[in-house]
Each structure stands twice: as structure tokens, then as C-alpha cells.
Amino acid sequence: MNELLKKHFGYEHFRSGQKEIIEKIMNQEDVLGIMPTGSGKSICYQLPALALPGVTIVVSPLISLMKDQVDAANQLGISATFINSSLDGYEVAQRFRSLDTEEYQLLYIAPERFIMPDFIQAMQRWRIALIAIDEAHCISQWGHDFRPSYLQMANVLETLPNRPTIVALTATATLQVASDIKRLLNIPENNHIQTGFARENLRLQVIKDQKKEQYLVEYLKINKDQSGIIYASTRKEVDRLYQLLKKFGFSIGRYHGGLSEKERTDMQEAFLYDRLQLLVATNAFGMGINKSNIRFVIHYQIPGSLEAYYQEAGRAGRDGLPSEAILLFAPQDIQVQKFFVQQSQREEAQKQKEYDKIKMMTEYGYIETCLQQYILSYFGEKSASCERCGNCLDDRELVEVTTQAQMVLSCLKRMGENYGKQLLMKVLAGSRDQKIKTLGFEKLSTYGLLKKHGQKEILQLIEYLISGGYLIATSGEYPVLKVSEAGVHVLMGETKVYKKEPKKVEQLATEETDRLFDALRELRTDLAADAGVPPYVVFSDATLKEMSHNRPKDRLALLQIKGVGQSKLDKYGEIFLSVIQKFSEEHATSRSI
């Protein structure tokens, strides 16, 4: 296995979880692998595809990415193809014939194709080494991207005469979703390999109490040489941000379901091939994207769940280099997600679950403790503070807000702890709302106590007290507030409450520009254009960084660089070595290689 890993992928050692998953597959055991984005999930099925007789079928949710996935596999020396609706009938028939004669080691298809009668019939003819189900959380109704076609696949698997080995892979699955995947695919309980959800190179940050447009433009100017994705919740907001940022001269594209298929494909390719630096998109973009040099992901609006957020945020820094995931948090954006749930055709019980997910996502926006720790806890993983997120590194001054907190808690107690945050805010602001008069709350001693602060600031304080555990919000669409035990301690004067000042824009932490790295990156762009593949398929930024640092002098030294395998050495070795040698001669250096 290690020999194949080095020859085709250029790595000396497996990453955490990869070897364990591959060993299960080689022993013909079904397995569920939960690994963070960028941890090398694809190797878990690509390497067995090289080692096992027959074809490995990869079920991938987005047909728009299949060509890139196949191009990347072929670059690694794996015989791969795809079958989807972009092909005409003649081409599909040709590929079926090639599969009948075992010309391919790897086949990418969509779940909708997998359950078609003609494909099921074809599978019964083939020698199938493995079926890899990518983005496996889509099979669970409790997952954030549930697709009925994924669920139907489970039934099809049981009809195959010789049921192949199954590997299910995902980056985001709560304990409930993981349990669902195993149950639906009949994966043994102990064949669940989870490497942890932490991304050591990803710095999480929440920005609130700031003008979002101003912050975004300033951030993009400061980090103008970096590639990034900006997510918004609606097509309308994507279009607005796209026009705004174009006016500022940014190299930007847009992506959402309202564009034509051609527009979406063109924008996606321009971004993947580094012709565009930025992309503003709805959540329609990103699943399965393998662009490794995305340095930041900014959520302009809050998504509907922590699963969705962490999966989208995880698209930054897949090459292992320092990257950022920033949430521009504004309370009013929560209503957009609630509207989506209200308009959905889900059953009431499922809607309540969705509202609970929005509540957890909202808390993430207000917490002052470790952001990574909060997310890992949501996925059932205990951890210490990460010491790298925006909250952990936050050295802003703490401002005591104990008195204001006591006013909020006291007011809620006097209201009977049977109302939501909006009404509580209005009472504290001294609103003349008719409901307040009807309930007689204008007679409370706490009525109007915080009116000098304004409704927005009061609401932010209430949300902060919820995220800090001083207030408890019940489940459902219309949560009711209760004072927690910690809140009682604040009321009694036994605990003080502190809050921090607003944040400023910081430059993304990167190494000083390396001129050799820039030269190698330029070469990579040219080679990728000639081959018709995205630049990261040639070599990742991390591999080019190591080349520019080590400056290998010969093929053997180049082969020691992570990401350089025998296949890529044969293809690109000489030309990269010549650029490195020329640069070293022009910049005479005494560095030891």
C-alpha cells in the first residue's frame, strides 16, 4: 500500500484514518469514514481502485465536478471515467462497453444514475471492486443535504448478486447522522472510523457589530492576492454582492441555481482554473470542490446549521496552509433561514429539528469562548480550546455588563419567563407596543430600564446572555426564554458578566511572498492550461511551497517532496527542476539543499 501511495500520490505516509479505512476495504469490510475536509478522503477509494481487480464506483453528488475529478485521477495514473447527463447516448454506450471489458479502474456517477434500471442491469455484469459513497450524510434525513436518491441507493445495493464492499465518506456528520448512515447501509457498528473534526490550519472567526459591506471590501483589499469564496443565503443577495464587488474592481464570479447551466459551468471553471480569484455563491456551490488553494471562506449571511457552516468553511485551506473561515454575523439574517424552514414541505417534527439547528448556529455567532471547541462539541467531540480562532486570540478589552445583564434577567423573571426575546427586548426598551399594554408589562419596574441603549443593542445583549448560558431558549419556531442556574447567580450578584469590544479587519497570516514560489505557480498555470485541467491538479500550493523552500536539484530530491509521485515526476519533473535550477543560478545562494 505504501508503495502505491508514494508512486501515485507522492506521499511517504498515510494521513490519520486513511490506512485504517483502506485496510477495512482490503479485508472486504464495509466501513464509514468521517474525516475533515482536506484530510484526503479520496485516497481511501482511489488507492483500493489501483490495488483491487474490477471497477470502483464512486457516487458523487454533483455532475458538474465529475470531469475535474476524472482529470485529477488520470493525472495520478488511475484509469478513470464518468457517466452523466452531459454525455450523449453514443458516448454513454461507448463507456458502458469499455466498462464491460474492464478498461477503467474508477467510475464516477451521480446517485440518480445509480438507481436507474439500465445502470443496475450493467452493474450486475461488472466485477465491482468497491462502491464509494461520497458526501454520505446526504443519505440521512437528519443530514443537512438530504437527497432521496441517496436513500434509494441502499435498496439497490441489496439487489446486486455479489454485494460489493461499501465505503461511505463524509466530513460532517453528527452522532445521529452517523448512526443513520450505518443503519441504512448495514455498516457494522465497529467499522466507524472518525479522525476528529478539528482543522489545525483553519482559523475560525466571527465578526459582528460591524457594517458588513465595509468590512468585506476592506478585507478583500487587504487580502487581494488570495483566492476565496463568499457565501450568501439568497440568489438576490449573491447578485447584489457580485455587482458591488465588481464595481470595486475585484476579480469575481457568481454562482447560484438561477443562472443557466452554461453560466454556472463557466463561472465554476474560471474559479477552479484561477482565472477568477473570488466567487460569491449560494450553497449551490462547493460540494465536492477540490480546489486546494482557497485561502478564505466568508459567510456574508448565517447558514441554516453548523453542519452546513463547517462543511462550507472547510473548503478553505485544503492544501494544509493557513486559511480563514469568517462569519459576518447579523441577527436579522436568522429570519432568512427561518423563512426557508417555514416554506419547506418538511413534516412538522423535521421543521422543529431545523429550528433547533438554527438556534445552535445563532449561538455560535454570539459565543465569546473557543469557536472550534463549540463546533467539535456539537459533533460529539470533546476538546481543549484551539488557541487559534478569533475568540481564543482575542485580546480586546473586556467590558463589564453585569448591571445590564441583571436588568435583562430581572425583567424576564417579572414577565413570568413565558415569552420570547423580541417581547423582552421591547419591554426593556420601553416600547409602546399594544401587546405590552395588554399584558400590563408597562407597569413593571424593569419597563424601559435599557431604553437609552436602543433595541438593536438590547437584542444583542439578550443573544449574548443566551450564548453564555445565562438564559435558556426552548426548542421550536417560537422559543421562550428562561433564566438558567448561571443566570440566577448573576441576579444574586455572585457572578459578573463581561463582554468584548468590536473587532477590526486583520490581514490573513501568510508567509512573505516567495519569488520562486510565484515562478513555480506561473509555470503550473501554463502547464494546467495546456493540459486543460485546473492548476491544483498539477501540484498544490503546499507542494510548490515545499519545492521553493527545499529547491531540489535532481529527480530523486524532487520525489521526496510531498505531493510528487512517480506519475507526476515523469510528467512534470524535468520542467520544474529546470525552473528551480535557473532561479537558483540567477539568485546565487549558499543555502544547503
How would you characterize the overall build of this protein?
There is one protein chain. With 593 residues, the protein is α/β, with parallel strands linked by helices. The chain has four domains: 1-194, Rossmann fold; 202-379, P-loop containing nucleotide triphosphate hydrolases (Rossmann fold, 3-Layer(aba) Sandwich); 398-500, Winged helix-like DNA-binding domain superfamily/Winged helix DNA-binding domain (Arc Repressor Mutant, subunit A), CATH 1.10.10; 511-590, Orthogonal Bundle (DNA polymerase, domain 1), CATH 1.10.150.80. The model is unreliable at 509-513 and 589-593 (pLDDT under 50).
Task: Note the topology.
Blueprint: H1 2-9, H2 18-26, E1 31-34, H3 43-51, E2 55-59, H4 66-75, E3 80-82, H5 89-100, E4 106-109, H6 111-114, H7 117-123, E5 128-133, H8 148-159, E6 165-170, H9 175-185, E7 192-194, E8 202-207, H10 212-222, E9 227-231, H11 235-247, E10 252-255, H12 261-272, E11 278-281, E12 294-299, H13 306-313, E13 323-328, H14 334-343, H15 348-366, H16 371-378, E14 398-400, H17 402-415, H18 421-429, H19 434-439, H20 455-467, E15 471-473, E16 481-483, H21 485-491, E17 498-500, H22 515-531, H23 535-538, H24 541-550, H25 555-559, H26 566-586
Parallel strand pairs: 1-6, 1-7, 2-4, 2-5, 3-4, 5-6, 8-13, 9-11, 9-12, 10-11, 12-13
Antiparallel strand pairs: 14-17, 15-16
Helix pairs in contact: 2-3, 14-15, 15-20, 17-18, 17-21, 18-20, 22-24, 22-26
